[in-house]
Automatic annotation (TrEMBL):
InterPro entries from the UniProt entry: Bact_polysacc_biosynth/exp, GNVR, LPS_length_determ_N
PANTHER family: TYROSINE-PROTEIN KINASE (PTHR32309), TYROSINE-PROTEIN KINASE ETK-RELATED (PTHR32309:SF32)
Lineage of the organism: Bacteria, Pseudomonadati, Campylobacterota, Epsilonproteobacteria, Campylobacterales
Name of the protein: Chain length determinant protein
Domain Tyrosine-protein kinase G-rich stretches: 352-395
Subcellular location: Cell membrane
Residues covered by the Polysaccharide chain length determinant N-terminal domain: 12-100
A GO cellular-component term linked to this record: plasma membrane
EC number(s) stated in the UniProt entry for this protein: 2.7.10.-
Gene: etk
Top-rank taxon: Bacteria
Length: 406
């Protein structure tokens, strides 16, 4: 039984030398078959429609932040742009037949979020290039709306800053300058004139009024009172003397004495009235006019004079310096801040600070067709023809030997 097994193994073993000999005997058939396959492959490469490839590197648009000129703000996320383009130009058009061009791939560039690649194939380089330009053009139009919106907002901001600067220069600064000018040229001189007039005229006049009351009016009344008192005493003395004479007199002379007595009584009454009037005048001067004059003089010296000087000092030492500091702040800090802000916004509108989505460099095209790949097709044809021819002659030879043995 062991011998039978060994004999079976020998039958199943492949004799390499015999195999080569067999193939060599059919070498012409193998060559002819391989050549036929090669010719078929070559014919296919001649009649197959050539497809050309175009590749472009696209940069997603951006604008630089006006607050930080280094910080670039993308008009859209590259990943979102890539996915959107894939859906629009690859997925939705996948089932469309008889197309002269198509998108082969759209992919983001690794480690650089600003760029993505577009690869198209078409029956000519021009069509492949035009498809790339169409895709990038569609994206650029969409992104231009975003970019225009940003630029318009910056222009509005710039116009608003210009209005603020104009208002600051022509209103606030001018208003403060006019206030300062009014204080320096009008208010302070007027207050100083009022103070001088108060010191040189009003207070001396009030003092003169007090002095006149004390040294003129009251002494004059006192003198008149003394004169009237002396005059009253004389009339009363004469009346007393006349009263002593009347009882001793008779006849026509008595009538004359009565007339004199009546005249003296009249004079006494008149002098008494005058004394009462003079006393009233003196009392008026002492109790009202003189105190009022003193009060007025005291008010002029201790209130109006001090307040006028305080007003001048307050304006010179507080109001005017405050306005001058305010003017300095407006002319330097606020105006400078607005000018700096304007410069930043104006800089953001410079072309080098923004860019729309565009192709970075020239579109790269293939000088030879991308498809069909002739060397590969010819190599596959040659290899397939050789393998099939070898397999065919081996099968043919095996059948031939079996028929012969039977």
């Amino acid at each position: 039984m062991q011998e039978n097994i060994n004999e079976s193994y020998k039958d199943d073993e492949i004799d390499l030398f015999e195999l080569i000999k067999t193939l060599w005997s059919y070498r012409y058939k193998i060559v002819v078959t391989t050549a036929c396959f090669f010719i078929l492959g070559f014919i296919y490469t001649l009649i197959a429609t050539p497809w050309y490839k175009a590749n472009a590197l696209v940069e997603v648009g951006f604008y630089r932040d006006s607050q930080n000129s280094v910080n670039e703000i993308m008009l859209a996320k590259t990943s979102e742009v890539v996915e959107k383009l894939k859906v629009k130009y690859i997925d939705l058009l996948k089932e469309t037949e008889d197309r002269n061009e198509k998108v082969q791939s759209i992919s983001a560039v690794k480690n650089n979020p600003k760029f993505f690649n577009i690869t198209t194939v078409a029956k000519s380089n021009e069509e492949a290039i035009n498809l790339v330009k169409k895709i990038v053009g569609d994206v650029s139009v969409e992104h231009k709306n975003t970019l225009d919106g940003y630029l318009n907002s910056q222009k509005i901001a710039l116009a608003n800053i210009d209005r603020q600067i104009e208002f600051l220069k022509n209103n606030r600064i001018v208003e403060v300058e006019q206030q300062i000018k009014n204080i320096e040229n009008s208010m302070i001189p007027r207050l100083e004139r009022q103070l001088a007039y108060l010191q040189n005229n009003t207070i001396p006049s009030a003092q003169l009024e007090v002095d006149n009351i004390n040294k003129v009016s009251i002494p004059a009344i006192d003198k008149r009172i003394d004169t009237s008192t002396q005059e009253l005493a004389k009339y009363e003395k004469d009346l007393e003397r006349l009263k002593n004479i009347i009882p001793k007199t008779n006849g026509a002379k008595l009538t004359l004495l009565y007339l004199q007595e009546q005249n003296l009584n009249s004079n006494i009454s008149s002098v008494n009235d005058r004394l009462i009037y003079l006393e009233q005048q003196k009392e008026q001067l002492m109790t009202k006019t003189l105190p009022d004059a003193y009060n007025r003089l005291d008010n002029l010296r201790n209130v109006m004079l001090i307040n006028s000087q305080a007003d001048i000092d307050n304006i010179k030492n507080d109001t005017l310096p405050t306005l001058q500091r305010q003017l300095y702040t407006l002319q330097t800090q606020e105006l400078s801040a607005l000018l700096d802000k304007r410069a930043i916004v104006e800089l953001s509108l410079k072309p080098f600070n923004y860019k729309n989505t565009n192709i970075v460099s020239d579109i790269v095209t293939s000088k030879t067709p991308e498809k069909p790949k002739k060397p590969i097709i010819l190599a596959i044809s040659l290899m397939a023809g050789f393998i099939l021819s070898v397999f065919g002659v081996l099968v043919y030879d095996a059948f031939k030997k079996r028929i012969k043995n039977n």
